[in-house]
């Protein structure tokens, strides 16, 4: 396999990405991949892409605008609509590649990106298959899973960020994406801070900060409702011990998808990226791909 650093246009800027390609062969499928809340591709997405590429799939792994290798100011601005635009732009770019079969594009997203996958697959009937790993499906469910003290403080800072932005302040008020219990952070379960930062490679410069205003949108965001409109085969990898994106709610939405395969793993939200949980999950995902979007059409 080989990996190339590339950029592709999206909206008013560009997304930085890795393009993985297996050696040789005719035009084949591609997996478009992106991460979750405030995360970047270096946080273990390479581990998944390497496995998929070894199985014969090309992979396009991208950062959202305002994060990582992508353009966009201010930095660390998480905007749901802009991220969905980035997904559409990534798919369009992938379909333009001469070694890709444009009718065999697969979507792969995790955590907040898993919710984006559900919405994007529902909107694009040409998508061949999708994988949503520990997906964020309901803002209400995730908010109720957090401690009320933390939620109320996050809401207050988010409101302040939104108001000062409307009044012309250029730099957002940022809060941690992950923090300890009862802290002012978007994710503040007992396993959030350690699990989140464990995904960052040693020596990699990473800012655990996100513009606070997104919390106002997250509370109203329910991408799981779109599962019923996903017509392609979709694999849901759910974590039974998920403290961030409650698996019971995710399972309820997943079972409404017409062609869903749902697997529940005895893992927490951040466990699925590493160790035995990763090995089990990536093997199941590769088997799903082989059944529904085989490398040899």
From TrEMBL:
Domain Serine aminopeptidase S33: 30-148
UniProtKB keywords: Hydrolase
Gene3D superfamilies: alpha/beta hydrolase
Example of a GO MF term: hydrolase activity
Signal peptide: none
Coiled coil stretches, renumbered: none
Entry's family note: Belongs to the AB hydrolase superfamily.
PANTHER family per UniProt: DIENELACTONE HYDROLASE DOMAIN-CONTAINING PROTEIN-RELATED (PTHR22946), POLYKETIDE TRANSFERASE AF380 (PTHR22946:SF9)
Protein name: Alpha/beta hydrolase
Organism: Streptomyces rubiginosohelvolus
């Amino acid at each position: 396999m080989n990996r190339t650093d590339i950029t592709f246009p999206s909206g008013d800027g560009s997304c930085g990405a890795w393009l993985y390609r297996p050696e040789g062969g005719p035009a084949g499928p591609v997996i478009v991949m992106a991460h979750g809340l405030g995360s970047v591709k270096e946080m273990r997405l390479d581990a998944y892409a390497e496995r998929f590429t070894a199985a014969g799939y090309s992979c396009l792994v991208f950062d959202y605008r305002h994060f990582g290798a992508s353009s966009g100011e201010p930095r660390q601005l998480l905007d749901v609509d802009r991220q969905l635009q980035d997904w559409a732009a990534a798919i369009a770019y992938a379909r333009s590649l001469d070694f890709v079969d444009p009718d065999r594009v697969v979507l792969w997203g995790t955590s907040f990106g898993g919710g984006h996958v559900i919405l994007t697959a529902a909107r694009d009937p040409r998508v061949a298959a999708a994988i949503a790993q520990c997906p964020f499906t309901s803002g209400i469910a995730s908010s109720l899973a957090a401690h009320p003290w933390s939620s109320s403080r996050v809401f207050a800072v988010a409101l302040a960020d939104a108001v000062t932005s409307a009044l012309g302040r250029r730099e957002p008020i940022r809060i941690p994406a992950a923090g300890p219990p009862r802290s002012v952070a978007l994710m503040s379960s007992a396993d959030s801070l350690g699990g989140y930062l464990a995904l960052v490679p040693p020596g990699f410069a990473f800012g655990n900060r996100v513009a606070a205003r997104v919390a106002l949108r997250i509370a109203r965001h329910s991408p799981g409702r779109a599962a019923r409109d996903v017509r392609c085969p979709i694999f849901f990898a759910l974590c039974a011990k998920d403290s961030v994106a409650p698996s019971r709610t995710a399972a309820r939405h997943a079972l409404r998808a017409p062609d869903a395969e749902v697997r529940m793993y005895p893992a927490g939200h951040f466990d699925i990226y590493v160790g035995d949980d990763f090995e089990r999950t990536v093997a199941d995902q590769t088997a799903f791909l082989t059944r529904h979007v085989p490398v040899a059409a």
